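anyone seen this seq b4? input:
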Amino acid sequence: PAAEPAPPHLAPPSAAPMPAGDPWPSLQQELERQVELAVANNERRPAPLGRWLSEDLILHANEVCGSVARQAAQLVQVPESTFRRQLEKASAHAANGVQVRSDSWATVRPLIRKVVEKGGQKEGKDGNLLDRSRHTLLRCVRSKVGGRTAAAASLMGVTPMTYKRWLADQESRS
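predicted toks r here
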């Protein structure tokens, strides 16, 4: 989809160099901006930011690991079969032109790459980069969209039922 200009109250992304250290706060800040942009555009069907996030994370992990799925799966901290399945799906979307992103998403990709390069340095659930990135975006969507389940689910790229399940899971972890 063609990118629409950002509403005036939304600041453009910073052109400053990416800070060293933990990339997660920068990723969260940029995801919040992406959600604000998507909500401000007031589209009937908002961009599936959650799908974009997970696909780009998988594709970057594959690239960083030289297309060695076992290493990429370990980096992302997911089972190799899960990684391969998601890589196949993301690659098919890219090959079929389904991987179209808004122009503003270009500011997210370097942050995703930084997260992947740092790898799942935490053990346990927080080490799984797919889960951690999903939970990060879920918090952003929830804070910006509130109780509008259909819009929130669309932003996450899932059904309303899945979105509600993710919310319940996130609340039980808190």
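Residues 14 and 66 are 30 Å apart (CA to CA). The two ends are 36 Å apart (CA to CA). kinda curious what u guys think
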